[in-house]
Design goal:
- By secondary structure, this protein is an alpha/beta fold.
- The chain has a single domain, classed as Rossmann fold, CATH 3.40.50.10310.
- Helix content is 43%, strand content 9%.
- The chain has nine helices and five strands; from the N terminus they run H-E-H-E-H-E-H-E-E-H-H-H-H-H.
- The protein has a five-stranded parallel sheet with strand order 2-1-3-4-5, with helices on both faces.
- Helix 2 packs across helix 9 and helix 5 packs across helix 9.
- 42% of the residues are buried.
């Protein structure tokens, strides 16, 4: 049962436990996200819940491999350019977010930690660039190695090659047939925000925060290429194309749910293997 994003993180430790963990040089798993509208069926905490839950899964996988880790207090003050026109979507300036993240990395260094792995499942380009900027600065100026966990399929979205020293690239062996089971009416459309996949993930991770009845009532608002252009403009342009705040097909979550738990497990396993590989040099 999902209870709190602070459960089993540094927040529940005393200072001596933090000191001992840092002395052992165990990796820090850092959940990053935003507080953002996610339609009428998901809560504002969806993205940070996702990051936190994935950190928990990776922590468990690492423990099974004999590698301890610790989860940093979740950071959820990010950038919501695309959905910033909706009430509930808190957003910072890029320079503000970068500076805060950099100082948090500096704190972790001062505690004695040497490795940090950042998890973020909020795809707003400005948000991702802020994370990248903070990580690059930390790696250049501090005595700490920070990496952002990213799926191989997302590299091209941000112009990355995959060999950057600030990335941990995850490429799980997903069975191709999982991606062939698709609603024909959704082909050539973009389900990118609070749609079928995200609704299925949230229902798997924290079902108490998902209104499935409402999700099933919602009509698809998956985006065309023209709709994507408006989405990226943010503000009123975004509200014009997705007036209820979701860009996708929430009612399609059932089809995705067939494999979502296995998919998340494969992700966690692959990320844990990557962390172990980096630890071994």
């Amino acid at each position: 049962m999902f209870t709190s994003i602070f459960e089993d993180t540094m927040v529940t430790c005393n200072w001596l436990e933090i000191e001992n963990a840092a002395a052992d040089k165990i990796p820090v798993l850092f959940p990053l996200g935003v507080i953002e509208e996610h339609g009428p069926h998901l809560t504002l905490a969806s993205d940070i819940n996702w990051s936190y839950c994935m950190c928990k899964m990776v922590k468990d996988k690492l423990q099974q491999k004999g590698c301890e880790s610790i989860i940093a207090p979740p950071y959820y003050w990010g950038i919501n350019h695309c959905t910033g026109g909706f009430p509930g979507s808190f957003s910072l300036k890029m320079e503000t977010m970068q500076q805060v993240l950099f100082e948090l990395f500096e704190n972790l260094q001062n505690f004695g930690f040497a490795e940090v792995y950042c998890f973020s499942y909020h795809g707003d380009p400005a948000h991702v660039r802020a994370i990248e900027g903070a990580i690059r600065k930390a790696n250049d100026e501090l005595d700490i190695q920070v990496r952002l966990v990213v799926e191989a399929m997302d590299l091209r979205l941000y112009g990355w090659k995959g060999d950057e020293d600030f990335l941990l690239v995850s490429n799980p062996p997903y069975p191709m047939e999982w991606f062939e089971e698709q609603d024909p009416s959704e082909q050539e459309l973009y389900d990118i925000h609070a749609g079928a996949f995200e609704t299925a993930v949230m229902n798997c991770m924290c079902p108490e925060q998902v209104d499935l009845k409402k999700a099933c009532e919602l009509k698809s608002s998956s985006l065309t290429k023209e709709g994507m252009k408006k989405w990226r403009l943010g503000g009123e342009a975004t509200k014009e194309v997705v007036p209820l705040g979701y860009a996708g097909n929430p009612a399609g979550y059932e089809m995705v749910s067939k494999h979502v738990e296995e998919m998340l497990d494969l992700q966690a396993e692959d990320i844990a293997n990557g962390i172990v590989k980096f630890a071994e040099g």
